[in-house]
Amino acid sequence: DLKSPANFHWHDRDPGPELFSHAVLEGLGRTDKAVPFRFLYDKTGSDLFEQICRQPEYYITRTELCLLEDKAAEIADIAGPSVRLVEFGSGESRKGRLLLEALEDPAAYIPVDISKAALGAAARQAALDYPGLPVHAVWADFRTGFRLPLPDQGRIAGFFPGSSIGNFTRPQARHFLAGWRDCLGEGGAMIVGVDLIKPVAELEAAYDDRAGVTAAFTLNLLRRINRELDGDFQLSAFRHEAHYNPSTFAIDIHLVSRCRQTVTVCGQAFDFDCGERIHVESSHKYDVEGFQALAEAAGFSPQAVWTDKNHRFSIHFLTV
Ligand code: AVI
């Protein structure tokens, strides 16, 4: 693109669209119906998620932003100079930019996101706003792993904000961290935002806001299936449900069938009993020690941790 600034580079690691139909047909064919959470984020889903972040019940985004603003200088101090910052799930790059502003002489900014439009806009803007900084936008699903474009030398710091690590199960989170640990190499670091265990009422409210934005976000998955996979889901025949499971320390989000019905997707029929559920997402919560133990099991050493005064959220600095 001729309009891109010279310090902007685009890397396409798109996993391919054919995965969606495969995942949906396989997931709806199971006894425990499920669709992987990454498919919640089409254009509408990504916009709805940005709206979730502004709901009064959803404390995660504003708590993490305050904590980052407060602690950016300390984080930058531990990270040291000339860091190459890799942001996983960069979205609007708001949090990555907070860190970039605090870091001493960062060597590169490498935002990674699955949403092409959001990534392109945010990364181009970062390249314009920091003309001396190489910006390597990577369009990829960071969950599946990919080769990182690694310009020049310098410590690599991965940044995984928003408690997105919570959307993995504990074994998946450990696997994800261990994979990146090997990729970061000696001297590498990982900065991870992690939501903390708290009273059930607060957690459940955060995932079922009064304005109904989270419900719309979950139901949008059915709209996407109807549009992209020739489905005939009636959105009014399903409802959003978010419950905390104390044995897994996770909010589990399901779509629940309001009646007995048959739905067709890609020409295949799927039967639903009344009350039958599709699992669409889980959001795991940790205590500080529990997350540090998981990081250690993945080969990292916890260097520092910051929490807000109400102990809602934590930011961990891990080193290889
Ligand atoms: C992206 N992720 C960290 C969000 C969460 O809190 O688990 C996704 C979300 N789903 C419903 N509300 C928010």
What Rg, in angstroms, do the CA atoms define?
Answer: 20 Å
| Average pLDDT number | 94
Q: Got a strand count?
A: 13
Q: Tell me the β content.
A: 25-35%
Q: What ligand molecules are bound, each kind once?
A: N,N-dimethyl-L-histidine
List the total number of helices.
9
Can you describe what's shown?
The chain has 320 residues and is an alpha/beta fold. Helices cover 35% and strands 26% of the residues. The chain is built from 9 helices and 13 strands. The protein has helices spanning 18-28, 43-52, 59-79, 94-102, 116-129, 170-184, 200-206, 213-228, 288-297; strands spanning 8-13, 84-88, 108-113, 135-140, 156-160, 189-195, 238-245, 250-257, 261-265, 268-272, 277-284, 301-307, 313-319. The strands form 3 sheets. The protein has an 8-stranded mixed sheet with strand order 1-4-3-2-5-6-13-12, sandwiched between helices. The protein has a 3-stranded antiparallel sheet with strand order 7-8-11. The longest helix is centred in the N-terminal third of the chain and has 21 residues, at 59-79. The chain starts with 7 loop residues before the first strand and ends with a strand. The structure holds N,N-dimethyl-L-histidine. Residues 52, 60, 162-164, 166-167, 207, 214, 217, 281, 283 line the site of N,N-dimethyl-L-histidine. GO terms for molecular function: methyltransferase activity. Pfam families: Methyltransf_33.
Write the layout of secondary structure elements.
Layout: E1 8-13, H1 18-28, H2 43-52, H3 59-79, E2 84-88, H4 94-102, E3 108-113, H5 116-129, E4 135-140, E5 156-160, H6 170-184, E6 189-195, H7 200-206, H8 213-228, E7 238-245, E8 250-257, E9 261-265, E10 268-272, E11 277-284, H9 288-297, E12 301-307, E13 313-319
Helix pairs in contact: 2-8, 3-4
The protein binds N,N-dimethyl-L-histidine.
